[in-house]
Amino acid sequence: MPIPQFPNYNREQFLSRIGNTPLIKHESLSRETGRNIFFKAEYTNPGQSIKDRAVMKLLDDVVASGAVSPGGTLVESTGGNSGVSLGLLARLYTPCFKVVLFVPDSLIQDKVELMESLGCTVVKCPAAAPPGHRDCFVEAARIYAEETPNCVFVDQMNNLKNRQAHYETTGPEIWSQLEGRVDGFVASAGTGGTFMGIASYLKDMTKGKAQCWFADKVGSGLCQFITSKGQSWECEAEPSFVDGIGKHNLTGQMSDALKIADGAVTITDTEAILMIYNLINEQDCWIGASGGLNLCAAKQLALTLPEGSNVVTTVADGADKYESKLFSRNWLVENGHWDSIPVELRKFATYDL
User: Fold this and answer.
1) Does 180 share its domain with 314?
2) Boundary residue ending a domain (153, 182, 197)
3) pTM of the model
4) What are the transmembrane regions (predicted)?
5) What does the buried/exposed string (b/e) look like for 21-49 if buried means 16 or more CB atoms within 10 Å of the residue's CB?
6) How many distinct structural domains can be found in the chain?
7) What is the mean pLDDT of each run of 10 residues along the chain (353 residues)?
8) In this structure, is residue 141 part of a structural domain?
9) What is the helix (H) or strand (E) element at residue 39, kind and residue range?
10) For residue 5, is it within any domain?
11) Could you give the 3-state DSSP secondary structure of residue 159?
């Protein structure tokens, strides 16, 4: 897989290009539902993902705290995108920060190679390790940082600067772009910072009227937790190609999730893949895995609202980070998705050619 390239920005240029991303209308979904469905194209950030927003805020916080100085080591647990953003921002300091990233061993290799190409050290941890276990990628990162001199655990799961970044930037951008007419919002959760920051802002601006739903993947218990009002995390153990999202516990960003979220829905991998392929075909928007999942959930939320309502979601990254699965006929066949892809859309499955 060709490694995505990033422009050679200095720190000021990079930071000035974070945010103010396009809000794009999904034309066919909007026609089909009679509601207006939009997505924030976060892959247009300089680091090509929504994580630039939070990482900028988080890195400013840890540097200002004096916990680590340039030339030291930044440690994070990541599903890929925050690791890329950290790798890009770390090298804009003098001297550069070193970056050590802990990931679940189920993470798509495309993302691992991308982070390594930025000079990051990537440590794989057992994906099956439960939250809080020392082998869990989050806990392993924390332990490493505690035991290493001039090193800090950035902790995107619990540092509320993550959530604040979206309350202060992404939420207001959506509000402005739709001129204050927002009826629904959907997003998936990895750290929970994106959903909680944007949803909190939209709830405040609409006096609680905006409907806010979590989008969840198979194998995650978040949908069950929300719909059972906190009584259960129960879910079927099932793998998913949608990296970086899904929960079996609440992060520090999500302590008030039951107060903010009005609902949740689980989307299958096949549904997400079909959404991605259709959007590429119709609007030439090459969106990533969680973006396809989020748009499926946005459609479901939209259908519960009056005709003409405006529903928004986020597309965290682009399709290039998922090429070895998303556009691989072999992988699609092996994982039971190929037969669901319409013949006219199979032209995009070119990875194995």
Assistant:
1) yes
2) 153
3) 0.96
4) none
5) beebebeebbeebebbbbbbbbbbbbbbb
6) 2
7) 76 96 98 98 97 96 91 95 96 95 95 95 94 94 95 96 98 98 98 98 98 97 97 90 93 97 98 98 98 98 98 97 96 98 98 90
8) yes
9) strand 36-41
10) no
11) coil
